[in-house]
Structures are given as structure tokens and as C-alpha cells.
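Changelog note: in this version the structure field was regenerated for every chain. One regenerated record is shown below for reference.
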Amino acid sequence: MYVVLLTFTAPMEEVDYALPDHAKWLEKHFQAGEFLAAGRCNPREGGVILTRPMSRAKLEAILCLDPFALQHLATYEIVEFAATRTAPELSALNEAVVQPV
């Protein structure tokens, strides 16, 4: 799994202008089952995306097509982690526990 931390690098007016396209991009990846959660940081200096497990190369390819990336409005920090303990709602993503067949 990954936590992606976005940090805005442009004025908020530019970020707000690109926000509808960014929201469509997010929706596409939620529909594809690749993203689990996304939202703004508080204070609004960036955002966070929680992804399902995938290859880092695939995630980097997805992120490079974010309108925020295409317009150079944000930078991305990718934090990979293996979920060894989860809430019951996320048990299917717990990589440390063998899942029933």
C-alpha cells in the first residue's frame, strides 16, 4: 500500500482552477479500485491519497497523469508500507495475514 502526500507548489488560485480536473482524475482511479481514500490536508497545503497495493511503477505512472502534476502545481511524496494490522473494514488489505480462499 502507499500513502501519497501532495504538497502544493503554486498559488491556491492556480490549484483551485485545476481542482475539477483533479477531481475527475481521482474519480477515475477510485472507480478502477486503485485508490482507497483521498482528501485535503489541514491547513490546505496539499493532500493525501491512500492506495491499494500495486507496483510503485504503476503508481508513479498514475500520479504523473494527475492534472496537478501535469500543470506543475504539486509535488508528490510516496510512502510505501505493508499493512500488518488493520481495522476489520480493511482486513482484505492486510498483507501480513493470509486471506481465506
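Spot check on this record: The longest strand covers residues 2-8. The first helix runs from residue 12 to 31.
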